[in-house]
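Researcher: Here's a chain I'd like modeled. Treat it as a single chain, no partners, no ligands.
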Amino acid sequence: MQDQAPCTAELTASPTIAKTRPVALPHRVLVAAGGGGVNNLGGMVATAVDSLSTLMLMGLEEDVAVARAIVDRSLSMDTVGEVSVFETTIRILGGLLSAYHLSGDGLYRDRAVALGTALAPAFDTLSGLPWPRCDLNETSADGSRGSCRVHPTSGDSALLAEVGSMQLEMRALAHAAPSPLTTRLRAASEAAVGVVRQMAAAGGYMGLVPSHMALADGRFTTNLMTLGAPADSYFEYLIKAWVQGGRSEPAYLAMWHDVMRGVLRGGVAHTSLRGDTILRSVLTATAGGGLHGPNGDRDVTFIARMDHFSCYFPGAIVAALDTAPTPADRDEWLDLARRLTASCHAMYARSPSGLAGEHVRLAGLDESWRMAGGYHLRPEALEAFFHMYRATGDPMYREWTWEVFQAMEHHCKTPSGALAALKVARASRPVQDDIMHSFLLAETLKYAYLVFEEPDVLPTRAWVFNTEAHPLLVTPPLGEGGGLLRPIEEEEVARADGHGDGGAAHDGGEL
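Model: Modeled as a single isolated chain. Structure tokens:
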């Protein structure tokens, strides 16, 4: 078993934290080999914001001061260009709010308000689904600031994760800085979830919903349903919104229970002949075709492939364990979390480099294990190890974490001190890719560090992690009265009366 103190000390002293700070903090992506970076998130100081909560947790006060100075000096909405609304929300808005929750420093709250204000045009759509991209300083047709547009690769469709997982950040913003605008932003982010739920009634599969939706009217534009990318954080935020609001919003919990029924009873969770458990994707006969085919049968096909993103799912299960309908259900949920976490570990342990590729599939009649893709420093397996260690206390998860960290140090470390991605993971001598995303500092190293921390550091009853691993305070006032997203039964009555609004109450005013 790895000793706690030496591991936390070594993670805190990692060269990735110590050496890359001067060049990495102003950028989103670090040029790993030679230093420097690339600003590809509208010119925001993404690494400075994304790393703040990790630096604070590790007690690296000098680095926190450097990052704060960069935010104070350089994070201005007057200079930000085109951004991904989703990535900006989870990384920058989430990072600022987390830093505020951890420190109480009003600078972070004030910059979060400015950013939320700049992002408001994203929710100005007929369907209630937010635009995927906005130029925060471009003048729109009506003369207002901020101009939004479709995704560059998915056309008129929106990705499920992008439209359905911004409510944690908008809710935290509304509570930290209450105003008519932040209240409407919260309502709009939750109304988008209501749109997904409403459309899923006809086009989903046992709690799962297709991964692409039309921005114009919310209809599903694909027949693919997956718990991985590009849908992952939609499902993750169902249970996390319930946690964030003090565990008192029945609509979110009911949606999560539907997902678990689909996973366990609908064939999504699958254990191979060799004992590997994965989360399969689902194809229906037509886009938005739902559970049943034209003849009323279960017209679905399963794809025996799971991406690394899906390794977030054990942590989501752990967050919901105490809501399982019966003790037997709780045992079944925890067993599934254990088996999925073991498969996520196997993605590393069975790789010659000790590091995971982007996805695995079960091939052939014998369902043999096949892994492909590069290693991109992703956090989800370490996220699973953290939550499983907190839930069970099993030292095995610390061992697995340490194995991954040592493999990263061995294969990914560069002369500049950064950790580089790998072009191919399944290689004994993998070739580095000259890139280091800010999520390495925000998520991967944070979860690795927290596995070795005491459970009273960010206790899960008081904190919830957004999908970028930024810890946000559990805030029971958000869930008062059952929250904004109403139970589906109430919405059906409201629609029958002619005044349903898709699921979340808001005043319909312009954002």
